[in-house]
Amino acid sequence: MEIKIEDLLLEIAKLRKEIEKLKIENEQLKRENAMLKARLGMNSSNSSFPPSSDKFGKKKDKNRSLRKKSGKASGGQIGHKGSTLEKVDNPDFVIELPNEICPHCAANLKDVKIEEVKTRQVFDIPEIKINVTEYQAHLKTCPH
């Protein structure tokens, strides 16, 4: 089998054209890959996506605390004077909790004298209520 130079030159030209096409395709794929990687790395903090679209996983802490450990126990420290919410003299509601049955032996305590009354007050924020005002215009016809 004899190989001619002209055939080899034609083959080289074909391969060069194919190489050029592959180079162009490679550049397009590189651009598309970079775009997809950028889109994959997007989340609600670096795009207009809502937080609900964030993928599950460990979130990177943007602001790590600069606090150092003090060695003290957590909570109120020894010697610190605390403050508490004081009881009010006239509460809005009073609910009596009569003790009429002994919790140990189930004896009737209705006629037994009360020795002490212990109180505890709960401070609740009242429910917000909408006030509706109705205006009633009186329409009259002049007799003249």
Shape: elongated
Total strand count, please? 0
Number of helices: 1
Mind summarizing the main beta sheet?
A: none
Q: How far apart lie the N and C ends?
A: 129 Å
Class per helix and strand makeup: mainly alpha
Q: What percentage of amino acids are in beta strands? A: under 5%
The helical percent reads: 25-40%
Please provide the ordered H/E string of secondary-structure elements.
H
Description:
There is one protein chain. The model has no long low-confidence stretch (mean pLDDT 87). This protein has a domain of 49 residues. The longest helix is centred in the first third of the chain and has 36 residues. The radius of gyration is 42 Å and the shape is elongated. The protein is an all-alpha fold. 25% of the residues lie in helices and 0% in strands.
Which tags fit this structure?
144 residues; mainly alpha; 0% strand; elongated
How would you briefly describe this protein structure?
This protein is mainly alpha-helical and 144 residues long. It has a domain at 5-53.
